[in-house]
Amino acid sequence: MQTAVASARAILTSLHEVMASRSGAQAKLNQVVEVIGERLDSEVCSIYLLREGMLELYATRGLEQTAVHVTRLAVGEGLVGTSAANNETLNLAEAAAHPDFAFRPETGEEKFHSFAGVPIVRRERAVGVLCVQHVDPRRYEEVEIEALQTVAMVLSELIANAELIDEEDAAVAAHLTEPERLKGLTLVKGLASGVAVFHQPRITITHVMADNRDAELQRMYLAFDKMREQIDRMASQAEFGVGGEHEEVLQTYRMFAYDEGWSRRIIEAIDAGLTAEAAIERVQQRTRMRMRQIDDPLLADRMHDLEDLANRLLRIVSGQLGTAASMGLRQDAILVARNLGPAELLEYDRRRLKGVILEEGSLTAHVVIVARAMGVPVVGRIRGLRGRLREGDPVLLDADQGVIDLRPTPALVEAFETRFARSRERQANYAAMRDLKPVTKDGQRIGVLMNAGLRDDAALLALTGADGIGLFRTEFQFLVSATMPQRERQTRLYRDVLEVAGDKPVVFRTVDIGGDKTLPYLRHNDGEGEENPAMGWRALRVALEREGLLKVQARALIEAAGGRTLNVMFPMVTEPWEFHAAKAVFEGQLAFLRQRKKLLPETIRYGAMLEVPALAECLEELAPHCSFLSIGTNDLTQFLFAADRSNPRLAERYDWLSPAILRFLRRVVRTVAPFNIDVTVCGEMGGRRLEALALIGLGIRRLSITPAAVGPIKELVRQLDVREITEAMEGWLANPPGNLRSQLQAWATQREIDWD
Ligand code: PEP
Ligand code: MG
């Protein structure tokens, strides 16, 4: 056997001749199997192509000619069908031993033992299979498989040019014209409709076989230079100084970018006769195949880096630069991606971006946190989605139910429109309530504030009529940056937010990073992951250890709030000393800035978040030193129930409306009552009507909630009599009924209070 390069090159040269000949498509395929069979010294070489949903034997050398256009296999049937269905290469010494083997007597293949099948891929989908067979039971060498894979790439171009498969109507794509409903995981609730837009538009490789090897090499070298320059620039722009943890990440990235093995393999593929684009893709295919066999999450991460780099290289070399965001959205769009970074999401035009579907994604993914803040519904965990729809396909996204409808029927669209209209009507009613005060029927003023994290969120204060921002998650700015935001950038953001908020208060929470909100540029010293990140090195724990980080933020906040009140709160306070230590950092900066005669805030109000149950036992010690307390029920409940808040399997298991949670909260309210400080609930719980009802019944008078919930909660408050609900809660907590939720529902229904 010659080297893969030599065999592939020899085959490609011959294929060039076949392609240039004037013969028809079928004759060309017949010649192709001869060429490949001869060059690879293979007894059988066959090409199966998709036609009307079936893989049809189109050409063969070695099998019975009478089987051509007669033998047909469904996708997934037999070895050929398996290779196409899974888009994977099979290399078997004994074909019949494989569980998917399907014997076709008309082909006369019983005498052949070994089998290798390589999918012929077009636009990421298998449209056929190229296979070879031998009498000897032997596995094919890697070089042989690689030669076959290279040839399969060329075949895909040949087949498309000869219009042997109808690309629109090809069988695997046949389902792409049918309506299809897929179920995923709700990540951000809401309804949306639009056309599918792929975040990473597919790079179309139009030419696989190169005319001029040197020109291809030249293009490839230039693209490598450009890509390396980009990576180096990224590294040098890192704002965290030299030697920071982010360096480690960027260094790995650089290591790949400069990896000689990688560029050498691409050069080899170009040497074999491929264009630069095809060569990059070819090498990537091989890497993917190898990685698939290794089950190691760390390697999977590295694979992700490598895919990123390969895509970057492909975009540079093909001149098809940019994501869908850079091309602009032309109509209402549902964005489709395997995964996204938060910054990438923010690049899209908010007016046109209606929804997001991710093949991966989890509730705590940064992109999801940002999408929630943007009010964009998201459904995640729909594997293989990009293979099931095409750009421009209409999509209905019902993130309330975690369902998407691809290419919906008119009846589905109509039903969706009705629900959508109802939901919009409700929104309009809420918007009309923005100037109404959230005062209960018996005259209690409830504070309804909103949670925010992005610069633009502040504008929602006016739109919703919220009383202020009760939780500004400052870590969002960190999450959406590729590098640590410098102090000036932080100051600018805080100042902008305060300006838009005007007279309304804004509570800035110092960064809650670490744990599940990891930053690529802030890594652990030991570089190792944590088994329980939510209970790990996060929030104030990071900030107190990385004092520089907190100092910079303190100074940015103090400077931004010059001449006004600064409300600052610390996340994940577990013991009072942590609060004091964080406060001391602020006081230190205050003294420093005073010396420098800077304009200082009129007052600084310090608050602690109560998210760790242990702090509830120390409130008497802490409360005299705080101006306010904010209860983060998202974390608090996960710690009380010992149930990971991001684990979808536990999402429905425990109820916020349980005596355990409610009694706990009531005790907190009672403990701090003598200290006369504000107590706010700022977790998601407060934004749900029934839960808000219960919280008010416990004595909570301030809720900070997601902006979309401000209207519904105001409406609820205005229907409520605090004395009544307080009394009812007392009764239920003294003697908990089997199902507190249904009791509350019945209670609200009786009083004609909307709770859904
Ligand atoms: C919480 O834990 O309830 C909270 C508001 O903080 P976050 O969701 O940002 O952790
Ligand atoms: Mg929290």
Spatial gap, N to C terminus: 71 Å
Present as ligands are:
phosphoenolpyruvate, magnesium ion
Strand order of the largest sheet: 7-14-13-9-10-11-12-8
Determine and state the CATH class of the largest domain. Answer: Alpha Beta
Proportion of residues in helical segments: 40-55%
Q: Helical region count?
A: 28
Which class best fits the helix and strand makeup? alpha/beta
Given as residue ranges, the uncertain stretches (5+ residues, pLDDT < 50) are 168-174, 238-246
CATH architectural label of the largest domain: Alpha-Beta Barrel
Major sheet summary line:
8 strands, mixed
Structural domains: how many: 4
> Radius of gyration, rounded?
31 Å
Q: Could you say which overall geometry the principal axes of the C-alpha atoms support? A: elongated
Q: Can you say what the CATH homologous superfamily of the largest domain is?
A: Phosphoenolpyruvate-binding domains
Strand content: 15-25%
Q: Tell how many strands the DSSP assignment holds.
A: 22
CATH fold-level assignment of the largest domain = TIM Barrel
Give the integer mean of the pLDDT values: 86
Outline the structure in words.
This protein has 756 residues and is α/β, with parallel strands linked by helices. The protein folds into 4 domains: 4-173, Beta-Lactamase, CATH 3.30.450; 180-201 and 324-423, Glucose Oxidase, domain 1, CATH 3.50.30; 213-318, PtsI, HPr-binding domain (Enzyme I, Chain A, domain 2, Orthogonal Bundle); 433-750, Phosphoenolpyruvate-binding domains (TIM Barrel), CATH 3.20.20. The chain is built from 28 helices and 22 strands. Strand 5 (114-122) and strand 6 (125-134) form a beta hairpin. The longest helix is centred in the first third of the chain and has 24 residues, at 213-236. Residues 168-174 and 238-246 have low confidence and may be disordered. Phosphoenolpyruvate binds at residues 471, 473, 512, 611, 632-635, 682-683.
